[in-house]
Structure formats: C-alpha cells, structure tokens
Amino acid sequence: MKKFVFSILASMLAFGFLNAQTAQQWMDKVSENYQKIPTYYIKFELKESGAQKAHTGELFAAKERYSLDVMDIKQMYDGKMLYTVSKEDKEVTVSTPEPDSDDLLTPTKILKMYKSGFQLSLGKTETIAGEKIQFIKLIPTTNSEVESILVGVNVKNNTLQQYKEFYRNGNSRFITVKEYLENLIIPRALFKFDQSKYEKDGYIVTSI
Q1: Is 161 exposed, middle or buried (0-12, 13-18, 19+ CB in 10 A)?
Q2: Which three-class secondary structure state does DSSP give residue 68?
Q3: How many CB atoms lie within 10 A of CB 114?
Q4: Using CA atoms, how far apart are residues 6 and 75, in angstroms rounded to an integer?
Q5: CA–CA gap between residue 91 and residue 89 (Å, rounded)
Q6: How far apart are CA 130 and CA 172, in angstroms?
Q7: What is 9-67+103-186's CATH number?
Q8: Nearest-angstrom CA–CA distance, 122 and 127
C-alpha cells in the first residue's frame, strides 16, 4: 500500500475507500452473474511467461459442474468427484475436492476467492477486441507466491474477459477469453467419467 503524507491523508483515504468499495461492487456483480447462468461455454487462450506460444483451451460449465480441456490436461467435475486426465502420462487421478480447493478452476471459483485474503482496488479501463474492459486489482493480504492479480471484466455483460497472475519470482500467467456463449444445451455425458473407456485406451486410474 502507498504511504500518504499527513496533509492529504484524510482526502486520499476517503478516495481509497470509495475506490475499494467500487471494486468490491464490480466483483460482486460478476460473481453473482455467473452463479445465475445455467450453462456457459468459454474458449480461452493461456499464456505463461517464458513459454514460446499460447495454448487454446475450452471450458463447458453447468453451475458447479464443468469440463475443462487445455494443453495435455482434461478435467471433469460432476459436482462431487474431480477427474484429472493427463494425456501425456496416460493417467487419470480421481479425487473428492473441498469446495474451496485450488483444484477447482471454474470462473465461479475464481470469482469467489476475492471475498477474503485480498485487498481490492480499481485498475484501468481498456478496450480489448472492441470490448470495454474494467480491471480490478487484487493484492494478497497474507504471505503468497502471488504478488498481484488483475481481473478484467467485460463491462457490457459482466463476464470474465481476462485473468492475469503476477508472481513474486517475476513469472506471470494470462488467461484471455476468446469466445463466450451462455444458456447452451450441454450433454450430461460431458461431465461423466467413463472409467472403462480410459482403461481400454491404456490409462492408469488412481483414486486419492
């Protein structure tokens, strides 16, 4: 946090409080929006510092259930069990995650984490691919390898447009939404794990 000289402390603190409140309202609005949407699809681009190229991924979600596919990893969550498929290792890990587990990767999860452990403030507004994006900055209030997070919100429809993590070691990770669809029909089979199919294809299935 910036240190303010005494002569302008009162006015700057008042501004900071208003700024934080506005950032909180933005995050609340976006989080509530995702909780109301029955189903959605996101095509996104994942770029990590040091990587030569970005990776394209897809997410199908129905409330808390989801199917995520990016790089050589596929995850399926049916609301109770999480199935993580490593295509490279030909291995499937089956687990029962807690609701606040870092293993769960939906926008709903990302947009709940701000409610504790972070200080919020408004970032800048940018126009990306013709869309007006409001950034909210999150600073961890406890020891963390993450230095800061920027959440980019599409002003038009209150959806997640960008998610940027900056680490203390200088690394970073950017996720950018390329396509977004709401209220589509998603087959239940997309969230269902067929163990026999994977075993037939030579995968090792392990429960933890």
Answers
A1: buried
A2: strand
A3: 21
A4: 52
A5: 5
A6: 25
A7: 2.50.20.10
A8: 16
> Which whole-number Å values give the CA distances from 195 to 10, 64, 90, 118, 142, in the listed order?
62, 21, 13, 39, 40
What tens digit of pLDDT does each residue of 18-61 get?
345 588 888 888 888 888 889 999 999 999 888 888 999 999 99
Q: What pLDDT sits at residue 129? A: 82
Structure token digits, residue 104: 């769960």
- Tell how far CA 27 is from the center of its chain: 13
Centre a 10 Å sphere on the Cβ of residue 30 and count the other Cβ atoms it contains: 24
- The total of other beta-carbon atoms located within 10 Å of residue 157's CB is 12
Q: Which residues of the chain have pLDDT under 70?
A: 1-21, 99-111
- Residue 33 has a pLDDT of 86
Q: What is the dihedral angle through the alpha carbons of 47, 51, 59, 118, rounded to the nearest 10 degrees?
A: -50
| Phi/psi at 31 (5° precision) | -60, -45
Q: Strands of 65-70's sheet, edge to edge? A: 118-128, 131-140, 146-154, 159-167, 172-182, 39-48, 55-62, 65-70, 73-77, 82-86, 91-95, 204-207
